[in-house]
Amino acid sequence: MSRKFFVGGNWKMNGDKKSLGELIKTMNGATVDSNVEVVCGAPAIYLDFARSNLDAKFGVAAQNCYKVPKGAFTGEISPAMIKDCGVNWVILGHSERRHVFGESDELIGQKTAHALESGLGVIACIGEKLDEREGGITEKVVFAQTKVIADNVKDWSKVVLAYEPVWAIGTGKTASPQQAQEVHEKLRGWLKTNVSEAVANSVRIIYGGSVTGGTCKELASQKDVDGFLVGGASLKPEFVEIINAKA
């Protein structure tokens, strides 16, 4: 079955109204492949701004959310608030949330369940650190992370799985297309065995980790790479090239 190519841009903690406004203008004016689903992950404070200014053909994502609709959780935002801004996606479990802010697999699972119950689509991130890859436990790590997410998913049509080897994020090192394909294929195999063949065939598994205009075409040609989660390059005009990697 054909999976619609998915390109997410994770702006992280970057930009201001001026620079993001310029980026949005560039994106709105660009010719982009209509067979690609594009979602931009804006900082929470700019979700409304991004959604109000980006063309409707582009989706918007929050970069995180909490596991309950409201309450005494200073500094957090809920899926209900995200939806109230007209935003339909959230990125959860990004390696920076896991490793900089200490979010556990369990918390990421709870957030995933609540976001999906609230009607948001979830870009769920998994990936191994350099010492884990060098220690030969990449599969063990990503399967364990995937299991916690899978245990909290009822409707897989709202989930995009993002494989991001932590050693390749923002380092300029990219997993080779072969390395990416190998992990994506194994993840699809895990889903087939542990969820269902239908889910394994339909769920989009995207790659993140120093994706650029230069690396995107070969990565996009891999059988099990269904798109990208782009960091730094999503703030530059070359993001359009990455969206059109399959064109």
TrEMBL record:
<dbReference type="GO" id="GO:0046166">
    <property type="term" value="P:glyceraldehyde-3-phosphate biosynthetic process"/>
</dbReference>
<dbReference type="InterPro" id="IPR022896">
    <property type="entry name" value="TrioseP_Isoase_bac/euk"/>
</dbReference>
<dbReference type="InterPro" id="IPR000652">
    <property type="entry name" value="Triosephosphate_isomerase"/>
</dbReference>
<keyword id="KW-0312">Gluconeogenesis</keyword>
<dbReference type="GO" id="GO:0019563">
    <property type="term" value="P:glycerol catabolic process"/>
</dbReference>
<comment type="pathway">
    <text>Carbohydrate biosynthesis; gluconeogenesis.</text>
</comment>
<dbReference type="InterPro" id="IPR020861">
    <property type="entry name" value="Triosephosphate_isomerase_AS"/>
</dbReference>
<dbReference type="GO" id="GO:0005829">
    <property type="term" value="C:cytosol"/>
</dbReference>
<dbReference type="GO" id="GO:0008929">
    <property type="term" value="F:methylglyoxal synthase activity"/>
</dbReference>
<keyword id="KW-0324">Glycolysis</keyword>
<comment type="function">
    <text>Triosephosphate isomerase is an extremely efficient metabolic enzyme that catalyzes the interconversion between dihydroxyacetone phosphate (DHAP) and D-glyceraldehyde-3-phosphate (G3P) in glycolysis and gluconeogenesis.</text>
</comment>
<keyword id="KW-0413">Isomerase</keyword>
<comment type="function">
    <text>It is also responsible for the non-negligible production of methylglyoxal a reactive cytotoxic side-product that modifies and can alter proteins, DNA and lipids.</text>
</comment>
<dbReference type="GO" id="GO:0004807">
    <property type="term" value="F:triose-phosphate isomerase activity"/>
</dbReference>
<dbReference type="GO" id="GO:0006096">
    <property type="term" value="P:glycolytic process"/>
</dbReference>
<dbReference type="InterPro" id="IPR035990">
    <property type="entry name" value="TIM_sf"/>
</dbReference>
<dbReference type="InterPro" id="IPR013785">
    <property type="entry name" value="Aldolase_TIM"/>
</dbReference>
<protein>
    <recommendedName>
        <fullName>Triosephosphate isomerase</fullName>
        <ecNumber>5.3.1.1</ecNumber>
    </recommendedName>
</protein>
<comment type="pathway">
    <text>Carbohydrate degradation; glycolysis; D-glyceraldehyde 3-phosphate from glycerone phosphate: step 1/1.</text>
</comment>
<dbReference type="Pfam" id="PF00121">
    <property type="entry name" value="TIM"/>
</dbReference>
<comment type="similarity">
    <text>Belongs to the triosephosphate isomerase family.</text>
</comment>
<dbReference type="GO" id="GO:0006094">
    <property type="term" value="P:gluconeogenesis"/>
</dbReference>
<comment type="subunit">
    <text>Homodimer.</text>
</comment>
<keyword id="KW-0456">Lyase</keyword>
